[in-house]
Every structure is written in C-alpha cells, then in structure tokens.
Amino acid sequence: MDSRDWTQLGCVAYPSPIHPDYHAGPASTIAFDNQDELLWIGTQKGFAGSFIGRELKRFTAFRIHPEADGPLRQFLFVDKGVIFLGSRSVYMAARSGVPIWSIRHESMQDLRAMSFTSKGTSEILVAGWQNKMLVIDVNKGEVVKELPTQDHYSFLKMSRYICAATNKGTVNILDPINFTIKKQWQAHGAFINDLDTSNDFIVTCGGSHRQTHNTPAILDPYVKVFDLKNMSAMNPVPFAPLAAHVRMHPRMLTTAIVVNQAGQIHVTDLLNPSNSQVCYTQPQGVVLHFDVSRTGEGKALADNKHNTYIWGSPNKIQFTEIGIPPRLPDPPQPSLLPPDPDMLDELPLSRIGLPYYREQLFSALPPDIISDVGAPPQQVDPNILSTLTKTEWGYIGPNKTGLQRNQYIDTRSTMKTSNTIRAPKFLSEKARESQAGSEDNTLVTTETAVTTPNNDHWSLRPEAPPEYRICEIKYSKFGVDDFDFGFFNNTQYPGLENNITNSYANSLLQVMHYTPLLRNMALQHAATACLADPCLLCELGYVFDMLQKGEGPSCHATNMLRALNHTSNASVSGVLEENAKDKNPSTLVKNLTMFLFDKISQDYKGTPPISTELERTLFKLNQPPNPPDLVKKLLETDARYQIKCMHCQHVSPRTATTFVNKLCYPAAKPNIRGMKAQRITFSQVLKAGLENEAVNKGYCTKCQRYQNLDQRKIIFNIPAVLALCTEITTAEHRKLWSTPGWLPEEIGIIVDQGHVYCYEGDDLKLHLNRGIHNITVYSLVGTVVNVETKSPQKSHLVATVNVGRAEPESKDQDRWHLFNDFSVRSISKVEALTFNAAWKMPVVVMFQVKAANHRFNMDWKTRLDTSVLFRDNNPHALKTYEILDRETEIPGPETVIAIDTEFIRLKEREIHIDEDGKSKTIRPISHAIARASVVRGQGPREGVAFIDDYIHIKETIVDYLTEWSGITPTDLDPINSQRNLVSPKTAYKKLWVLVNLGCKFLGHGLSQDFRVINIQVPRNQVIDTSIIFMKPPSQRKISLAFLAWYLLKEDIQQNTHDSIEDAQTALKLYRKYEEFMANGSFHDVLEALYKKGKTLNFKPPRISTGAAKDAGFGTVHRVSTPPVPAPGTSEGTFEIPSSTTTTTGSSSVLSATGGVGSASASSSMPSTPVRKPIGLGGPFTVAGVTKPSSATSVDTIGAGAAGTGITATGTGTMGGGYGGYGTDGAYWGGPNDMAPTSMMGGSAFIPARLPPGLPESRFIPYRPQVLAAEREADAAAAAAGNDVGGGSDVGDVGGAGGEHGKQE
User: Fold this and answer.
1) pTM of the predicted model, to two decimals?
2) Binding site, annotated residues for a divalent metal cation
3) Binding site: residue ranges?
C-alpha cells in the first residue's frame, strides 16, 4: 500500500453555512457506504447527508430525528438502505431518503453504538450509556429483545465476536449469539476514543490520566492491539503524535491506518510496526472523525471547521468493489408542446412529437384483470334454423341443439383461439371409442415441415405459441401408461418425459444425443467394464441408446437424473432443481452444461473406450490415442491466460482449460448522427468469447497492490465439439439474436500463433476457396432455447436440433426438429434459427466439426464387454441363482431369457388441489427397481435363475411394498442383508448388456418393468405372455396368477410376489403356448380362458373358496426355493451355509438319504416361493414304496429303493421306483423326473405321464396331452436302469408320487 501518491481529491463543507445545523457544531459522524459510491455525514441536530464519489457531489439530505434528540451517532449499511442511530431512536431509510421504519422505545435513553449480530444484516444490537441493550430485527423493524448490562458502551464492532468499548477504557468481547461477556480487556486507563476490528485483531485509540485521576486525561502515544484468535493482548504499536483515530485496512488484514488530531496519517503493519508509511494532510482544524472506504483506496477526515476531506490516489479511487455510482433521478423532460398555446390551432399535429416509453405504462393493464362485457350471442346452426317454422314473433320447432332451455353458453370462450395444445384423450378412452366406431382424435401436425408451412412464423409471434409452451402429462386411474404421447409426436425421434425431478435437462440431453461425437463418446464408454456408480458418461450412453432404440413417441431419463443427484459437487454447482439458489431454467441449464462436460471428461479419462476408430480417422492419428489426449481434442479448449498489469506492465501466465466457452459481446457504442451503425456479427462475438479479453481488478505481485489487470487468452486448440453459453443479459444482446439470420449454420475457425479468427457466410466461402490457411469448419447441431412465458405459466426450455447431422449421408442435411420434452415436431430451418427478443432466446449453442457429421462407430456393439454377466459380485450371499458359464452359456440373438422385477416406492404422488377442491396430479408415484431376476429360458438348465440381484437404493424409501414385492428393509440393508445386494449401476448394466446382445426377454406385463428399469428393449426382442394370451379385440390383459391357475393348475402369488417364481411361471406359460400352437388348440383354449375368467372376474380362486374345491384343488403350501448346487458337489447334494440356522417346525435340521442320493435342507434358505403339486397327503407304503396316507389304493409300481424326502426345502430327492397318480390323474415322480425347481436328474419337470409297461386302461388320465414320445423316453430310461424318482417337493418319500391316485 503506497501512500506516497496520496493527495486531497475533494472537500465539502457540511453542514454548510446555510444549513440549519451549521451553528450547532461540526459533523457528528462520517462513514463510507459499502454498497454505493457514497460518503455519509451526520450532523449535531439529526440531519444526514450523502455525497457521491471523490468530487463529493451532493446526493441526498434528510432529517433523521428531532433536534432535541441530539447528534446523529452512527451509520450501518444493508442492501435495502441505511440504518441511522440517534440518542433515543433507530431509523432506517432507503439511500434515496424514503423511510422504511423508525423505532422509538422507552429503553432508549442515551444510545451511542450499534453493530450487526451473528444473524448478519438481519439483526442489530444497540447500546449506549444506559443500563439496557436492545436487539432489533432489521426486516421487521421492531425490538425483539432487551438485555440488562452494567457497562456503558461507546463503540460496538462485529468480527469474530462483538467488540464493545466502554466509557471506562475497557473492551468487552461479547458472544454474538447470546451477548454474554467472553473476555474483558483493559485497553486504556481513562477512555477509548476510537475502535476497529478485523477477523483476528482489535485496535483501539484512547487516553489515560498521566499522574492522578484528578488531572485531565490525554491521548496515549500508542495503539493498543488485541489478538482475538488467542484471546490475548499484543504489544502496542507506538505512535508518538498521539493516536486519535484508527481503522483496519479492509483488504490487508494486518495493516492499520492511524490518524492524529492534526491529520497526520500512518499506515502500519501490526506484526512489523517499524515498517510504516506517513502521509501529511492539511485540515483547517482538529480532526474529529476518520473512516476508510471498503476498498481501502479512499480516506475521509472531518474537522471541527465543518469540512470533510477525501484523500487517496488520483490514479484510481473507488469506495466500493464495483464502483457503481447511485442512480440519479431522471432530468425533467422538455415539453413537446410549443410554448405558446395560441399556436396549437395553426400547428400541424405532425410537428408535435410523441413520447417514447422504454417500460410498460401503468395504464397498460395486464390481461388477467381485464373484464369482458357484452358476450356475443350464440350462433344458431343453419341446418337447425331451416327446420323451424316462422311465426310473427320468431321461429318455433323441436329443440335439436342438445342443450337445455335457457342454458348458459360461454360464447366468448368458445370463439377464442386457445393458446395451449388441447389435452388428448386417454388411450383407454380412445380404445372404448374405437370399439364403438367413434374415433375422432387426430394429430394436428405431421412429420415434415412441408406439411406445416405455418411454423415459419411461430417465432415471429408476440407471445409463445402452443407448440413452445409447457406440455403437461395427464394421469388417469391407469397411470402414465394411459397417456397418449403419440398425440404429441408422430416423428421417428423419441421425446423425453418431463414428470421427473431435474427434467429441465431434457433439452440439453437431446442436443447432446444428436451430436455424433458426444454420442460416440458415451456409447463407447458405456460398453466398457465400467461399474463406477455414479458415472454420468455411462448414464449418458444408456440414455442415448434408449433414444436410438426408441420405437415409441417418448422415453425418460430417470436413471440419468437420479445419478446426477448422487454425483459429487452437483448441489454446489447449482444443477439440482430442488437445491439450486437460482431456479431460473436458463441458469440451471448453463450450470449443467459446464458440469456435465467436466464430469464426462473425467469419466472418459478413467476407463479406455471400447474403440477409438472414429477419432483416429477424424484426427488422422497413426497410433491409438490415450483417453486424456482424446478429451483434449474432443472437448477441451486448450489455452493459457496472459495477465498484464496496466500499471507496471508486468505479465504473468496462467493455464486455462475450459470445456464450455461463454460468448462476449462488444460494448454498445452511441450512435453518431450521419454515421452508419456498425454491424456486429456472430463471428465477432465468438472470437471475443474465445479470447476472453477483459480488464479486471486484481492483485499484482510486482506492484504488491490491487491494480487493473488486462486478461487475455492465448488459444492453442479449439475442440471438435464447441459448446457455447450465450450469456444474454441486456436488451442489446436480445436485439442481436432476434436479427434474422444472425446465427449461422456454419462457422470457420483459424487458430494461428495464439490468436483466433472466426468467419461465416461469404467470408468463410472465400477462405475455403483460397485454401491458404488451415481453417476448421464447424456445423451447428442445435440450441437449447429458453421460452419465457407470462404468469401463470413458468418459463421452460426447448431444443431445436438438426437431426440430419446424426443421420446417414443419404438423408437430407437439414432436418430441424423442435424437442419440447415429449412433444416433437418437424420445423423449418427458418423457424429453428429465428429468435424473438420477447420470449425466445438461446441459452446453449452446440457446434461440431463438419467432418464428424454423419460419422458413426458401431464397434461398441460387436466388442461389448460382457464380463459383468459371468461375475459373481457377492459370493457370500445366499444363492438363489447360478451365474452363466462363460464357455457353454454365451447369450446371443437366439437366447430366450425370462425376467421379472420387484419394485419399491420412493415418492408418493404429488397433487395440487385447486380452489374448487379438484385434485390434479403434478408428479406420479415414483418407483424404483429393488430386485431383478433373470431365468434361463432354454437349454439343460431351463428355469434356473442366473441373475437374482437386490438393488441398494440410495434414495429414501417411503414404502417397501412388501405385500406385493416381498422386499423387506433387511433385504436392502447393505450391513444386514444376506441377499446378493448390488448397486443400481451393476444391476442395470447386466440387463443393458443382455439387450444389446440381442437376447429375447420373456415375461408377463414387461412394459411396466421396462419403464421402472428405464431401459428400452426393441419389440422384436420382447415376448410378453400378457399379450400372447390376450384375445382381440378385447384390451383386457389377464393376470399371471389367473393364467397359472387355469393353464398350469398352479396357485402362485398367494401371500406375496416373487420375481423368480413369476419369471419361471411366465416361461411355463410360453411353453404351454407353444404346445397349444403345435396341436392347433390355442384359439379354443383362449376362448375357454376368457369364458372362465368372466365367471370369476379374472381372479384365481384361492384355497378357501368353493370354486377352488370344486375345481379339485386341495391345500397349497408355499416353501422356499432350493439353493443351487455348490460347485464341486453332486447333483443330489446341496450345500447350506454353516452360519445359517436350519429349523423346520420343531426340528433344527432335517436330512435324508435315498437309494441313489442324499439331501439336506434348512428352513432359512432363500425364500423364493415355489408350488407344491396339488393334493399331497401323509406317507404310505406299497411294495417297498412309501405312499401318501390320503391316497387311494394303487397297484404296485416298480420296485426301486425308496428315498426319503425333505420336509423343509421343497427339493425332490433321488429315490427308486415310480410315483402314483393324483386326483386329477396327473402322474408325479416318473423316471428321470424331478420337482419344478429341483436341480436333480439334469432336466426340468416333465408333464405327467403313464409309467412304461403298465396297461393304459388301468388309469384314466385327466390331462389329454399324453404323448407317446414321452412314454418311450421313460421306457428307455427305465431299461437303462435310470429309475430315479422325482419325489415330492415338500418332503414326502421320493418315488411315491405326490397326488392322489385315481383308478379306473
């Protein structure tokens, strides 16, 4: 801090000789404003005046309190205005003088000081030479607390604590919350004349008695210092001229400025007092008051001769950081009328000018408060009028209008054109009308811009047309699936739904998706083995893959936006809608663009992509590049800042790597009469933004002070993807963008020796034809546009994208589309590149090198990393699955897999109830996948699960839906769960890999599963049993439980749902369907199915109902799914974890051995439920074979050794002999047979059949499909000695069968 160039810059006499307070005395206090370039001066009789800048030009002056209250004591400054302290009142007013509040309180007797508290500028503490302190709420303008005190205070200053100087020379350090005394410090012997604080120091000037207390006290020749951090006094700073006033420098934390009564100023370092600078001022009298501006550049002194001086450096002085002067009142406008009223009769009206208003007048009433008067009459249909009979008083005839007599018709509403798109009918409603032949709902737009020529003028309208306004999803009792998204999109490009949090990002995601290089980056990374959670680049790849595969009108990016919530620094970066301080959509999307580009560059560097062939070809690289080098070429603007001090010319470099550049507009120049206004082009704005040359205030290391610094970027490389934030802040900027054709479709950029040159239009063509410079051409991909609408609608974002950039070469170059969330429309190029200053302004503009247009690299599909399918992420979990064998079970396009999932609830439905009491769903119930099970659909281990993942949910779960899902809190607890608990990323990655391998997904009602999973599966890869067993034209889909009850004779989902059970049931239904199609009985079965369903309301009868008993169903028990065989064990032996307690009823462990194999089981096995064949009873014996006690007599069947079953686990055991027949004639337990979920015998459960060698006439089979091939296969197995009984699945003796025998 150099005081050698200080000089007096201004002086003002206040109160002046003509002021009413002049004879009362000089100024009572002075202070610099910390918001505006103002200096405030108070008088002895309650006046306050403010003065602007170094010239001290008068700004305002007004009375604060009556003369009787004495002098004005102190100022405090807040955003809304200034707080003034008098002896008996506290007053707040705007800087213009408009009063805000005034407080006079009975406890205000002799106030001397005030300070802010721990609540910042919303609360102040006032005190004085009185026995009470008061706490005042600044926002309310009222006293909220009174505090007794024994000390009388002269000064209050706030830093770490409230530092209070008493009238006895001590300083009390007060707690800023409860105002108790933390420490007392005796600073001076008699009084304290001035006090100031910084973060760590207190400095005081005061006086002491030199000999006795009877002698007058004089100023001390030193400044006392106290360390607030250590709560201890420091060595005083000597000041021989007698210190009268002191201030801490606002920027230099250890520097104090000391002034004596003669105006001598010393600038001293508290830690090095010998290092000081001296400046001599020449006041006309004794200095009474002193203050330093917030920047430390301005010093103000007031003397006893009514003069106030400003001292500082003439080169630069600002009172505040920004240095903006206060707004002055507008000067009076000259009259537009001639001075002589008599001339009006002769003066033509064209000579009288009209006023120009930049702001809307108060007389321009908003449309929502304008009342309509005199509605037009209802128009009568001419066809009806022709049927009426004319009379003397009018027409008479039958009422064919369909309205009641004298019924009110709002003709004004019906005649007005709506400014919103009408909501389409629900799909269920349209289906009913379709059956009745009354389909009348049509789409108002078509796919191509040729058929919608009017869209060239949408952007020229004064307000946003319906196509740009917010589209709302309506919800019926069937949920979001019933909404007709196709009404808003008949193009081949899916939109994105907006009913989820942070869906403002939809427009940016669409622009990024149709940028080929960004899409390629995301997909090449998503195909790697990356399992980082969260990884935004992977999530982008999944979203882009959905949009590519999208066969419907819309998708949703739920997983991507949830991952954004859990990404580090997302909240502080202002990209989360719920936590952002500025919820303006344009601010949010700008922050998100910078955040995403930074995060995806980090993710891309972390894992090498699957293929870099596209980048190698594009950038003509000989060797495969590493990820950091690719990020530099694709996303980073490689540059270095050159910072030059304007005072000493010192230059210092600094690296500057940016991913998103901001446009910089030249300063508006005043129009000079007779000169043509200079045209500003987009290329000029882009060049200024890339080079970012600006003059800012900063610290110069050579000057060792704050100076004006010239900052400029030296550019070395421009990335292949050029993302730009438009930074539109003024009306001039809006005017530029609303100029027709201002945004070019192509730009050319030359980087030469650190400088950037940008060209467009004819200049670009000229440079390309010359071919002298290495110019890179960029194509405009799309823009994110902020649509500003008036209340009650909110502003929102849309995207205009040229999807032709991401299409093959054979298609048109220009295929512009408007993406308004799930509403997608084809628009013309003119409409896409036209902006409107009133409501349509771009926020983000995306360019890409032209050479990358129409370029794709599909290597990620052929080189997809599938290791996640063959990896057991949790080998210690209870196993209800067996991972795929890498050698023999490789998924591919012909692989059929059965899938089912279970959900939990994350958020309840958000509703809005209007004034009429009607509720409207704002956001639907939010679900998340909690368990995903995938079962082998073919091969020797058909029906065996190879994925059974429980997902660790990071969000708060409001309902586990245990009754329907079977999920309990323990299952998803990472500490206590014994399940195969994985991250959402891992579970999703497995399914995504299976989709891209071409596997066929089989299940029941898969559309809802895929929606919650947030995955897009092509239709040709989906086998949905709810659609297979649906009889057209009926739209009724039959539940899985009813299909299993009717077609499989199995009672499932009794107490809860289970994903493995449901997937296996869907697989059996599909096999049943194939069987029906093979014998040509499918249509007859479907008719019978619907007929039976109507009688039962399509609900399967349970065991307690009469219908179940009439159908021959006995008691059905649910037991646990058996664990899969442990590696290295025989097929008849199952491993139980040693830590698991095994109990069944009163038994702790049950085990049994048979003639061929053995088994053991535990009741605490995984709880995937399975079914027991109907009608099992107690054991009985026939010819060495144990027989159920409830079965009827059965002839001797086979002579194999009996095997003992297991009563707990539901696993069939190995035993000799054959089983019997049940009440329905179904045979259970033939050779080489096994229980439905057993791992024995190497095959799945085979439908009932007769034992080989027995006369068929002895039995009446209930099931008609008994194939000779099955009997022959069983006979061959028996001849080979492979008499392995399937046993029962609840522990009855193996080989005895499981159903009641029914003889002829």
Assistant:
1) 0.59
2) 900, 902, 1009, 1062
3) 900, 902, 1009, 1062
